[in-house]
Every structure is written in C-alpha cells, then in structure tokens.
Automatic annotation (TrEMBL):
Glycosyltransferase as UniProt keyword: no
Name this protein carries in UniProt: Acid tolerance regulatory protein ActR
Function: Member of the two-component regulatory system ActS/ActR acting in acid tolerance. These data implicate that a two-component sensor may be involved in pH sensing and/or response.
GO BP term, pick one: phosphorelay signal transduction system
Source species: Flavimaribacter sediminis
Keywords noted in UniProt: DNA-binding, Phosphoprotein, Transcription, Transcription regulation, Two-component regulatory system
Amino acid sequence: MAPESEAVEILGEDRSLLLVDDDGPFVRRLGRAMESRGFEVTLAESIAEGRAAIRSKPPQYAVIDLRLEDGNGLELIEALRKVREDTRIVMLTGYGNIATAVNAVKLGAIDYLSKPADADDVFAALTCKPGEKVEPPENPMSADRVRWEHIQRVYEMCDRNVSETARRLNMHRRTLQRILAKRAPR
C-alpha cells in the first residue's frame, strides 16, 4: 500500500492536525514527525495562535500543551469543542496530575500524555479506536528521570534563575546546582 493510502486508511480523509505548545523546538520536531505519519500539520505556540488556527480551519486532530505562556490549554479544548465536536484531542503536559487529567477528559480530550512524549506515543493516542487502550510504553521513564525533567521544566520557567528555582522547588540552592550540573538520568 502507498503511504498516502495508508494514511487515509488510518487517519481518514481529514488528516488536519493542530499542535499547540510554547516549546518551539519541541512543537516543530513533533510537527515534522507527525507530517511523516500522514498528518497535515498546523503549528501554534500560544493560546492566541491556537484560537486563530481553530477559527480558520477547525482540525480533525489536536495535541495541546496544558500550560502555555499566555494561558491554559484547557481553554483551547473548550474553544475547539464549540466549533467541532468530533476532534480527537490529546493533552500534553510536563505537570502530570490527576486533577488536570480528569478535567481535560471531562472537557473532551481523548488522552492525556506526560512530557516528554515521543511521536509514536502521540500517534498511538490520536489514532486509537474508542474504548481501545494504548499499549504502555516499552521503556517508561525512571523516577529519577521524571524528577530531573520536572526540575529542568521549573528551571526553564524561572528563566534559568537558580535561586528562584530552588525556592519554588523548596530545595537548597547548592543541591539544585549539583543536580543541574549532572547529566540527565536514563
């Protein structure tokens, strides 16, 4: 089967995908990966850009980050549901917790993935049939890696300010400096 016909078979005729994430390199990398899987990708890096994309052409599929610089990704789920009920939405976040996952699903998301999610995980979540469960990851992140990812995310949110990051994480500044100096755990 040709790649084009495979994509139509799996994704359907409407292969439009909206990716919304304020991490520019991540969203562009994910966009390229999803295009290679047959999607017609539109990128947005803010709530405002996401709303504009939804108004111009409501997508069949959407992957939305929870926390964006100009607001909350849950707003986009609501906006998207108002104009297109059948959109398959996956919520991404670096801050996985049960309350936001439940809220995202109540608003209409079909799945909730923690960052860093790879393109295969996102594709599987977008294309799973209703009631079908996505396979658990082959190599899930270790607890040390999850902790390291969280520290890095807070560090970036604090504009790489070690003192502010240490304060928000409730840890000693020197301890944080040692953690930041090390390589990421596997």
